Amino acid sequence: MTCNLRLTIKICGMREAENIRAVEQLDIDWIGFIFYPPSPRYVSGDADAETVRRCTRKKVGVFVDAGVGAMTATAERYGLDCVQLHGNESPETCLAMQARGYPVIKAFSIATAEDLKQTKAYETAAAYFLFDTKCEGFGGSGRRFDWSVIHDYDGRTPFLLSGGIAPGCEDELLHLRHPAMTGVDLNSGFETAPAVKDTVALAAFVKKIRMIF
């Protein structure tokens, strides 16, 4: 990665209208909305649909092992631009969503370099990968995996880094310098409560990141 490459910044787990409007004022690129009922950041209902549709940034819908039909219906209702598949979805499911016009971010749980091998089957099935911390659930642990293992990733698909990114991580991100790392995914490390982001902390982080990337 070179310092003149703009890093995509995705803020995930948004729901509250006023908070979304504030985050949209920052120099960020994508906003993620979680459509997984067990999540404390779950988005549902007509009011949330109106809030999501009004979002001016690229809208990413996060799903966990949902059917293609259900995801497509949700994407249409909420005006999503792409989908992030965070469960055990097959390459065929990813391809089916992309065929419907929704670029796929396929998430993988990572603890060791061995875990990177699972990406091989998805090389032509997703637009992006997302590397998150392996945990009992489907992300959202707030913990960081050993980022040095991403140097063993030799795939062609660009990836976003997730898992435990918080204020103070900026210099570490600079030193990663992996040529396929195209973005970062920020969530619980910048929250004051589930689905409520600390816009002051985000603003400071984004400003420093933009000075580096």
Question: What's the helix and strand layout?
Answer:
Blueprint: E1 8-11, H1 17-24, E2 30-34, H2 45-53, E3 58-63, H3 68-78, E4 82-85, H4 91-99, E5 104-110, E6 128-133, E7 159-161, H5 170-176, E8 181-186, E9 191-193, E10 196-197, H6 199-212
What gross morphology would you assign? globular
Number of DSSP-assigned strands? 10
Order of helices and strands: EHEHEHEHEEEHEEEH
State the share of residues found in helices, binned by percent: 25-40%
Measured between the Cα atoms of the first and last residue, the distance is 9 Å
Number of helices: 6
Radius of gyration: 16 Å
Structural class: alpha/beta
- The residue-averaged pLDDT reads 93
Low-pLDDT windows of residues: none
List the strand order in the largest sheet.
1-2-3-4-5-6-7-8
How much of the sequence lies in strands comes to 15-25%
Sheet with the most strands, sense and barrel status? 8 strands, parallel, barrel
Provide structural commentary.
It is a single chain. With 213 residues, the protein is of the alpha/beta class. Helices cover 27% and strands 22% of the residues. It contains six helices and ten strands. It has helices at residues 17-24, 45-53, 68-78, 91-99, 170-176, 199-212; strands at 8-11, 30-34, 58-63, 82-85, 104-110, 128-133, 159-161, 181-186, 191-193, 196-197. The strands form two sheets. It has an eight-stranded parallel barrel. The chain has a two-stranded antiparallel ribbon with strand order 9-10. Strand 2 (30-34), helix 2 (45-53) and strand 3 (58-63) form a beta-alpha-beta unit. The protein is globular. The termini are close together. The model has no long low-confidence stretch (mean pLDDT 93).
